[in-house]
Design brief:
29 strands, mainly beta, Neuraminidase, five-stranded mixed beta sheet, 4 helices, seven-stranded mixed beta sheet
């Protein structure tokens, strides 16, 4: 009997050890991606990798906003927040079904106001909205109550885009700086006073320019690439410094692990080609590949999680015949977690599709009941 008990204890201990080791990323599990290759096409259906919820913001005179992708700031199953960036500068909060919830406007130059908004992130759990404006972060409730402000070094403020700042935990923000303000580019700072809590040990980067310029006579056109340095992933974040060849996973336990290695090195390519880490949905990882020239051509890739085979996806919708969509970190930058995605469908395009009998299901019903004043329709994706 004692031998059996000892054997059970030993087996249990062995299973625990193996499970702990398995959580670490072994070299065999690291994804290797050649960004210079052309990959075969593969068709899948959106509904095979995600449950789809259609939402249309109700039209109310006090809750109007201009249609623009830059307006969308926060999406979850219960709350949708819109910042009317180009028009009123309102922050508008809706329920997950599109009903008005609250709003406020503190646009101005006062100590408790915001002016040029670089980005904002919302913590639903404690009802705190962090608004980055100039060289400070102002913290508000969803009803507009000003809690406090955090001063930032002036040289850092404008580089903190939506894709380079995130809530790490209840005490800290995870940020990416594109300059040499700190010893490391990825840093955790206090949510209360911006003091440095941790400088994350991602290797120091080299200088790299991810924008292109062209000149016609006296006119100079400059176009920047769509970069995502911090991407939510499971219980942590994917960290990408585009001058490096490796994407890292940074967990809540503060461990840093490589998860993806690209080849060839970005510095061996002319023009540069880079990737924005990935989004996990169903059996696949989705990412975009960007070539740095004045047109910023972008294509999309899909990696099978099991065997790491790579494809160029055609993601089709069941409710919209012939409609193809793309998935990448762009689709989760404003969502509450990595398991939720967001896509906006233009109402005018949908009306034409309705007339051409291309719509079905709930989407068809919503478009049928829409009029000339109706807002665009949002797709909230809950990844499988």
């Amino acid at each position: 009997m004692k031998k059996i008990i000892k054997l059970i204890i030993f087996v249990t201990f062995y299973i625990v050890i193996i499970s702990c080791v398995d959580k670490k990323i072994s070299p065999e599990r690291i994804i290797h991606l050649d960004v210079s290759k052309t990959y075969p096409e593969k068709s899948i259906t959106l509904e095979d990798i995600a449950e789809v919820k259609y939402v249309q913001m109700e039209v109310h005179d006090d809750y109007l906003f201009s249609p623009s992708p830059i307006n969308m700031m926060h999406v979850s199953s219960s709350t949708i927040m819109i910042h009317d960036y180009y028009s009123t500068h309102d922050f508008l909060f809706f329920t997950g079904d599109g009903k008005p919830k609250s709003k406020f406007n503190h646009f101005g130059l006062g100590p408790e106001e915001y002016s040029y908004v670089t980005s904002s992130i919302y913590d639903e759990e404690v009802d705190e909205l962090f608004v980055l404006s100039d060289n400070k972060i102002s913290v508000y409730s969803s009803a507009g109550k000003h809690y406090y402000s955090i001063d930032l070094p002036a040289e850092n403020s404008f580089v903190l885009r939506k894709s380079s700042i995130a809530f790490y935990d209840k005490e800290s923000l995870l940020i990416y700086y594109e300059n040499n303000a700190y010893n490391k580019n990825f840093v955790r700072i206090s949510r209360k006073d911006a003091s440095v809590i941790e400088e994350i040990d991602v290797p120091n980067h080299k200088d790299i320019v991810l924008y292109a310029r062209s000149q016609s006579g006296m006119r100079v056109n400059v176009r920047g690439a769509p970069t995502h340095n911090i991407v939510k992933h499971k219980d942590g974040f994917l960290l990408t410094d585009h001058s490096l060849d490796t994407v890292f996973f940074y967990g809540r336990n503060k461990e840093l692990s490589p998860v993806l290695v690209r080849t060839p090195s970005i510095f061996d390519m002319d023009p540069y080609v880079f990737i924005n880490s990935f989004v996990e949905a169903g059996n696949y990882l989705f990412l975009n590949r960007v070539t740095v020239n004045i047109d910023m051509p972008t294509d999309y890739l899909m990696i099978n999680k099991k065997d790491h085979s790579i494809f160029m996806p055609r993601i089709l919708m069941k409710d919209y015949k012939g409609k193809e969509i793309n998935l990448s970190p762009e689709n989760i930058y404003c969502t509450a977690n990595s398991g939720t995605g967001f896509i906006e469908l233009n109402i005018e395009e949908l009306k034409e599709a309705y007339e051409d009998n291309k719509l079905s299901g709930k989407l068809k019903e919503m478009v049928k009941s829409s009029d000339d004043e109706s807002n665009n329709i949002f797709m909230i994706l809950f990844f499988k």
